[in-house]
Design brief:
By secondary structure, this protein is mostly helical. The chain has one domain. The chain contains 7 helices and 4 strands. It has a two-stranded antiparallel sheet. The chain has a two-stranded antiparallel sheet with strand order 2-3. α3 packs across α5 and α6 runs antiparallel to α7. It is globular. The mean pLDDT is 89.
């Protein structure tokens, strides 16, 4: 990696990145299947949402400059696995994924099981290891990307994402 981490990135993490890059073509297969894709925000974190004061469901999403067609769980993994520490994820992740899946099926999404969402979410979380690399590569300060790196590595371990590289 050429982002100036040098010895600060432990061998175990460098190995994870090498294995990830080697598996990249296979990991892209989910996207290339072109099934169950969605419009994704691309920068889905809580600062890009306006919530109504009265508790209504009138949420406003803004800052759409990174939108694209992709696997919807990418936004979920970016928000939860990249931005949340394990204690928050343990409290909220499962329930929010359940809620998300219920909303999908109630709005007509068919043939997309709760298990498929879990598989997509784990794969999306694994892809998030590239977020801090990209952020460092565009010279965002370490105060931004280092926390993302630490949180995503914790999520990778808790979600058993390394298994996806086998």
């Amino acid at each position: 990696m050429s982002i100036g981490l040098g010895d600060r990135l432990p061998h175990e993490r460098r190995d994870l990145y090498e294995r990830f890059l080697d598996a990249g073509p296979r990991l892209f297969a989910r996207y290339h299947a072109h099934r169950h894709l969605s419009l994704i925000h691309g920068d889905a974190h809580v600062w890009n949402y306006f919530l109504p004061r009265d508790g209504a469901d009138d949420i406003r999403v803004f800052d759409w400059d990174a939108w694209r067609i992709g696997v919807a769980s990418n936004d979920l993994a970016y928000m939860m696995a990249t931005h949340w520490y394990p204690d928050r994820r343990r409290r909220m992740e499962r329930a929010l994924l359940d809620h998300y899946h219920t909303a999908l099926t109630s709005h007509g999404v068919c043939d997309y099981s709760r298990r498929a969402l879990d598989e997509d979410y784990r794969l999306s979380a694994l892809w998030q290891i590239m977020t801090p690399v990209w952020q460092a590569g565009i010279d965002l300060p370490p105060a931004i990307w280092w926390g993302h790196l630490e949180r995503i590595m914790l999520a990778i371990d808790e979600l058993d994402c390394r298994d996806l590289l086998a």
